[in-house]
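Could you help me review a protein record that somebody else here produced? Do not assume that whoever made the record got everything right. The record follows directly below this note.
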Amino acid sequence: MATQSSTSSRAEKARATREHLIATAIDVVRQRTYGAATMFEVAKAAGVTPGALQHHFGSRAMLMLAILQSILESTEEDGIPWPDATMPLPERAAAYLDALWTRLYEPPRFLTAWSVYFGAADESALQPRIAEMRRELTDSVHVRFTQIFPEARAHADLPAVVDLILSALRGMGVARLFGTHPQAEVAQRAQLATFIATWCRNAPPLHKETP
């Protein structure tokens, strides 16, 4: 029994240490740059030896992937207040964009993730896994869009339009690297909401009657 308790205690300590190291690495990337987040600098900021950091992650590439995974998991844990599909279309479109913006694109963790995306652009060890992680997130958002806007399912260009909406929000998020402009962001989301509502209203019928 004592051995089992001791093993559990060690596992909890290791998990807490790993979480501390990831949080520290996120802070280093956010406050400095992706390039500055070396194993040595992260270990120094975390108050551990580079060997201890390497023990938990093996390499800088694995640490960067752990950062991205942590950011994605934190988004999932927070939960996104998606609007109900029965809401009036204009209000639903605005609520949908507000939910995405406040939980995915506005928080500082979004810019941290993109610092890793940009910084790892030429790193072959990271790109395939990063692409997979981004694809999984994008796929889940596509599915959610069709649940919130069932009117849109009949549009043949549905995937392209959802990608366009996400690209617009992503661009607004990345623009925050150069300063925040809340009024402009609100105005842009309002225009985007109008576009979604109009596009959904113009959708063809889901089922055509057979003559």
In short: The mean pLDDT is 88.
